[in-house]
Structure formats: C-alpha cells, structure tokens
What we know:
The chain is mainly alpha-helical. The chain has one domain. The chain has five helices and no strands. Helix 1 crosses helix 2 and helix 2 (30-49) packs antiparallel against helix 5 (89-111). The longest helix has 24 residues, at 3-26. The chain starts with a helix and ends with a helix.
Amino acid sequence: MNIINLLYIYNIIVIVIFSILIYSIFTTNITFIRIGLYFSIFVMLKWLVNHRLCTFGYYECKLRKVKKNEGYINMFCDYFGDMIYSEYNYIFYIILILVNIINVIKFINLTHKYI
C-alpha cells in the first residue's frame, strides 16, 4: 500500500471521528452522545498519561508478524498521541472538556427517567 493512500485513509478516518464528535454535541441520539463521551475521554486520558500502547495494535502486529512501528493501528494511535505536542494542545483540552460537559449533561437529561 502506497504511503500517500495510507495518509489519505488516515485523514478520512480522522475527519469521520471528529465529525461524529461534533455531531454528538448537537444531537439528542443517545448512541452518538455515548460515542462522543467515550472518544473524548479516551483521547484525554491518552494525552494525560502519554500512553502509546494499544492492545488492538499489539494483536495486529502479532497477526501480521511486523514490528510495532509498521502496524497500521499503532501508526493511527500515534497520530492522536502526537497531538499533545502541538502548539494548540490547550485548545484541544478545552474543546474536549466542553464536549464532555455538554454530553454528560445531555446524557443525564435523556436517561434520568430510567434511573
């Protein structure tokens, strides 16, 4: 697979993930709210502890019998791990915290009648 095609696929996946995250702010669909919560918490924890290991990436490397730096999942996870070194990392944190707060409030409002 050509590296340019691989980068194109990564960009599409990143756009889809962030589109779902933004969509979770404006929707009342409980599934998208949960996905937004899970993803934003996952990314914030990855950034806070700077943990670069991925279980699915480990299994992919074992199945394909390649090194860690050649695994597709590990390369994709490194993209999100490298965002912490951006000059805009404080803006990313603020956005993710706001998304969490909005989605938690919406989640509680939508599910309070079931509790």
